[in-house]
């Protein structure tokens, strides 16, 4: 029997309203496939009546229970940073942490969200034109997708957000990291879309709780590609409208899977089978979609 089976891997996810998360199932399924006794639990602030102020106690409790690491989601990705001992270069640049490794009494913060989006984009939209990209959303997810897009070599990047100052702040932060790119914030969206080659959507619009479109469908043209971060549901109204207009599209599932791939690697020190995790995710989302149709 291997040492890993004698000493189980324990991990968890801290966030609010996370009961529907597929992350635990992805981690545990891959752990089982690799011969690990892998436990992954949800630490949901909502039913615990907790907040970001409780992060110090939650982190300490995870350490005391022998956790190898924690995934971090809304609203804790920035709030967790002061409670960590070290940050990876990308987590420091992005200003957000979604993965914490607990090792030898120290806490190491990483960001696998940006890599998850970048890997999904490389696989799902290979060789598309990235000369001018519009992004909707400058929140936590938007920071990660902006960093990913610019890391992939986007030449001109326009960021739009309902909170103008947030878009401006993100454009300034990214400009410092990527000085050779042209980065603008909250100009004329229609004009930008008329010139853009692609669109990244990084807001909650399109989720089950926030239905609708993040921009008028008439702004989409067949020359555009459209990359989505929402994966509940996988087929958002934005993607439907984009496909009707002949656009190449990328759903948000890949980002969800590949950020988990990165976190699994950090927690276990083992190389996950990304394709196996992707297939598992697809089977779970297909099952969820079928159940939703049955309820209707």
Describe this structure in words.
There is one protein chain. With 296 residues, the protein is an alpha/beta fold. It has two domains: 3-111, Leucine Dehydrogenase, chain A, domain 1 (Rossmann fold), CATH 3.40.50; 115-254, NAD(P)-binding Rossmann-like Domain (Rossmann fold), CATH 3.40.50.720. The protein is 43% helix and 19% strand. It contains twelve helices and twelve strands. It has a six-stranded mixed sheet with strand order 2-1-3-5-6-4, with helices on both faces. It has a six-stranded parallel sheet with strand order 9-8-7-10-11-12, with helices on both faces. Helix 7 (140-151) links the parallel strand 7 and strand 8 (156-160). Helix 2 (23-33) crosses helix 12, helix 6 (113-124) crosses helix 7 and helix 11 (253-268) crosses helix 12. The longest helix is centred in the last third of the chain and has 22 residues, at 274-295. The protein is globular and about 55 Å long. The termini are far apart.
Map the helices and strands.
Elements: H1 3-6, E1 9-15, H2 23-33, E2 38-44, H3 45-48, H4 55-64, E3 69-72, E4 86-87, H5 89-94, E5 99-103, E6 106-110, H6 113-124, E7 132-136, H7 140-151, E8 156-160, H8 164-177, E9 182-185, H9 189-195, E10 198-201, E11 225-228, H10 237-244, E12 248-250, H11 253-268, H12 274-295
Parallel strand pairs: 1-2, 1-3, 4-6, 7-8, 7-10, 8-9, 10-11, 11-12
Antiparallel strand pairs: 3-5, 5-6
Helix pairs in contact: 2-12, 6-7, 6-11, 11-12
């Amino acid at each position: 029997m291997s040492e890993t089976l004698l000493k189980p891997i324990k991990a968890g996810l801290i966030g609010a309203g996370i009961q529907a998360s597929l992350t635990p199932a992805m981690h545990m399924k891959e752990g089982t496939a690799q011969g690990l006794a892998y436990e992954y639990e949800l630490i949901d602030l909502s039913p615990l009546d907790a907040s970001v102020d409780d992060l110090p106690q939650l982190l300490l409790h995870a350490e005391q229970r022998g956790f190898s690491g924690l995934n971090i989601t809304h609203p804790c990705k920035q709030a967790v940073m002061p409670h960590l001992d070290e940050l990876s270069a990308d987590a420091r640049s992005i200003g957000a942490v979604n993965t914490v490794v607990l090792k030898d009494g120290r806490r190491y913060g990483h960001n696998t969200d940006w890599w998850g989006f970048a890997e999904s984009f490389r696989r799902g939209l290979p060789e598309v034109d990235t000369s001018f990209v519009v992004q909707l959303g400058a929140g936590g997810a938007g920071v990660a997708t902006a960093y990913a897009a610019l890391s992939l070599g986007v030449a001109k990047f326009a960021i739009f957000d309902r909170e103008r100052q947030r878009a401006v702040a993100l454009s300034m932060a990214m400009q410092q990291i990527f000085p050779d790119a042209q980065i603008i914030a909250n100009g004329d969206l229609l004009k930008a879309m008329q010139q853009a080659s692609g669109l990244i959507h990084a807001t909650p619009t399109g989720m089950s709780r926030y239905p609708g479109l993040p921009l008028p469908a008439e702004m989409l043209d067949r020359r555009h590609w459209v990359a989505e971060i929402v994966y509940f549901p996988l087929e958002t109204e934005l993607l439907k409208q984009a496909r009707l207009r002949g656009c190449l599209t990328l759903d948000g599932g890949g980002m969800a899977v590949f950020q988990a791939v990165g976190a699994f690697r950090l927690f276990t020190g083992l190389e996950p089978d990304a394709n196996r995790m992707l297939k598992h995710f697809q089977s779970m989302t297909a099952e969820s979609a079928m159940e939703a149709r049955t309820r209707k």
